[in-house]
Amino acid sequence: MEENNEWFVGEAESDNGRIVTRGRMFRTAPDTSAYKMRVEIVWQYKPDMTAMPLPDETIRMDDTMNVLCDAMEKDGLALLTAIHIGGGHAVFVYYTRNIDSFSARLDSTLGKYPVLPIRIGAAFDESWSEYKEMLKRFSIH
């Protein structure tokens, strides 16, 4: 899906400090009706003075999540749509075709790593409301 990638970066303030969002814009819109489940992977980290992750944690998080993204997107099982970082946690937002397959692939991919400081949640989001709200928040249409 690399040829379909365009990303923006935006910042917002929250009660926990600055939040940096990296959001995906699709040149060719995916068939959102096929990706009805939103999955959020929340990576807890010890923040620096600006509420961002320390350099070593940033490298660990980036390396791990890049491997996961490659695994999820290689055959279109899931699409990474956003990464929100700040306030002691990073949230990786995916939309997936099949939550059971996503879960199995997540386990097989991340099972190769030492225990990671993550929580995972999923919700039905057929209309991609979280994604649309993110675009609206940053005035991207």
Features:
141 residues; alpha+beta; 3 helices; 28% helix
CATH class: Alpha Beta
How many domain units? 1
**What is the CA-atom radius of gyration, in angstroms?**
15 Å
Biggest sheet, spatial arrangement of strands: 1-2-4-5-3-6
Largest β-sheet summary: 6 strands, antiparallel
Low-confidence stretches: none
Return the average pLDDT rounded to an integer.
93
CATH topology: Aldehyde Oxidoreductase, domain 3
Assign an overall shape: globular
Give your account of this protein's structure.
The chain is an alpha+beta fold and 141 residues long. It has a single domain (2-137), classed as Alpha-Beta Complex (Aldehyde Oxidoreductase, domain 3). 28% of the residues lie in helices and 37% in strands. The protein is built from 3 helices and 6 strands; from the N terminus they run βββαββαβα. It has helices spanning 55-73, 99-110, 129-137, and strands spanning 5-14, 17-26, 37-44, 78-86, 89-96, 118-124. It has a 6-stranded antiparallel sheet, sandwiched between helices. Strand 4 and strand 5 (89-96) form a beta hairpin. The radius of gyration is 15 Å and the shape is globular. The two termini are 21 Å apart.
Quick summary:
With 141 residues, the protein is α+β, with helices and mostly antiparallel strands.
